[in-house]
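Session log. Operator J.P. requested a structure for one protein chain; no other inputs attached. Running the standard single-chain path with token output.
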Amino acid sequence: MFKKMLSAGLLSLAVLGAAQAEGPVRLIIAFPPGGPVDLVGRVLAEQLGRELKQQVIVENKAGANGNIAAAYVAKAPADGSVLFLTSVGAVAISPALYKDLPYDPARDFAPVSKVVNNATVFVVNPSNPAADAADFVKKSRAAAQSVAIGSSGIGSIPHLTLEMFADASKANVMHVPYKGAAPVINDVMGNQVSGFFGDVPGLIGHIQGGKLKALGIAAPVRHPLLPEVKTLAEQGIAGVESNNWYGIVAPAATPPATIAKLNQAVRAALETESVRARLEKFGAQAAPGSPQELAALIASDRQKWTALIQRKNIRPE
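Structure written below.
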């Protein structure tokens, strides 16, 4: 009897210990609270916690275009307790911009799943006479001076999209780098600069509120929230496609079984109707996939953006 009681007690302690070991998951965000990445992360974290049956805590580690957060996660415990919700920059652009990164995306991360697609839209002040992007190009060529287009910083998606746009359209434009998206958006609304290429989630409220005018989508298809806005390709400006997708990666040594569990939970969370609806409301399009698909996307985008950065001799400030 004593042996049975002892065995039962030890089993209970083991079960309790296993339950206690399932602590919270920390979802690291590389940008400040309130921005598009943070909003997506918080919507995802709530449902992801339900799927994992663990608390998922969003933790913001902003700075250095996402490199601070990336370096932190690269050295984190490889047990599924720390995840990185990254935009394309930290894993596919920074390696081409910075020579001394404290991490290597291919070596230090295990892809889990893509989370959302974020199309890039070209916006101007509502007073701008251009009817669309093609008309903007035509008017820029006739202008006496280059037309100023702002970006959120050298090497950012808005900057790189502008470079592609200028090459494809031969527009007479000049790049004006800012430190972040908020100040350049404010200056477009204030007519201090003439335009900006930015993610739909960060701009949709201003577009719908009439504070900005959308001239074109840098994507293969039109955006569901902006169905009247033509793609750049529809306007005769081919080859300008820019998707600032977000995805989840874990430290490289995370066991395959843990990656599979996390992938299943992320996919289930993003397939939940309420989650998809909340994301789509502010312009992010849920796009879960396999770890292998995310790995291939990181590799192909790294090649794409590296080629552009090297060709245009882009260097960080």
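Operator note: The chain has twelve helices and eleven strands.
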